Amino acid sequence: MPIYEFKCKKCGLEFEKIFFSSDKKEAVPCPECKSKKTRKLISAFAGGKSGSGCGSCAATSCPPS
Ligand SMILES: [Zn+2]
Fold first, then answer.
1. What is the average per-residue pLDDT within 19-33?
2. Domain residues for 5?
């Protein structure tokens, strides 16, 4: 399922939201200040990698390059 990363224009919080099939078009309110002025940063797909690994290896603790 797709994961989208958002940044709140009001308070600057960055957060991720996993979308299920039917709620893609809804505005995504900031979990901190509830503002709907959020901007989508990137999209990625869950399932191809585990944890917070770098994406090019299976490890979840590879150092940042
Ligand atoms: Zn906010």
1. 79
2. 1-65
